[in-house]
TrEMBL record:
It comes from Geodermatophilus africanus. Residues 38-57 bind DNA. It comes from the Bacteria. This is Transcriptional regulator, TetR family. One of its GO terms (molecular function) is DNA-binding transcription factor activity. InterPro entries: Homeodomain-like_sf, HTH-type_TetR-like_transc_reg, HTH_TetR, Tet_transcr_reg_TetR-rel_C_sf, TetR_C_32. Keywords: DNA-binding. The keyword DNA-binding applies. Pfam families: TetR_C_32, TetR_N. PROSITE patterns: HTH_TETR_2 (PS50977). Residues 15-75 form the HTH tetR-type domain.
Amino acid sequence: MAGGAARPRVRMTGTQRRQQLLDVGREVFARRGYDGTSIEELAARAEVSKPVVYEHFSGGKEELYAVVVDREMQRLLDRFTAALAAGGSPRRLLERAALVLLDYIEEDTDGFRVLSRDSPVAGSADGHASLIGEVAHRVEHVMGAQLDARGHDPAPAGLYSQALVGMVALAGQWWLARRSPGKEEVAAHLVDLAYGGLGHLQPSAGRRPASGPLTG
């Protein structure tokens, strides 16, 4: 064959094509965001025509985006479910939950970037809220049990869990750009902060706070 001959097209099954479009969509939405992505670019990246995209996603870009978001939510929730089912002390469970999110950020960076963007699609914002809510709900049970065991009112556990999940997600964005310190150390620091509070942080050897501990 001549060097400039076109490559033969690989024929995909319907399932394979849909999966390919979802993978392409995740990559493009992660890089450009929803508003910056066009159906033409999605089709071009998948090396198909626009009608093929609509054949699999009749709602076009909006439907493809919503399915990408739903798929990423489920992947992350499955990881949390498996990690928290392993048991352990409340502190260990919190640390494991933080590591789950940091692992996801590292291994599924495009998915995390999609989920961390504001969703402009009707219905998707609720879906994203349900993902964060479900993660926080799982942490809430751990935190509530710990508060109760210490004789405190477990009612604020929902608020605390929302704060913890938000803190890990935001810190994860910071860590993604640096990849240092290691994930395990990041998770341990975050749990130290959430568990003990600033007022209970112990100064490092040879260092003392200028005016006593933070009691806020």
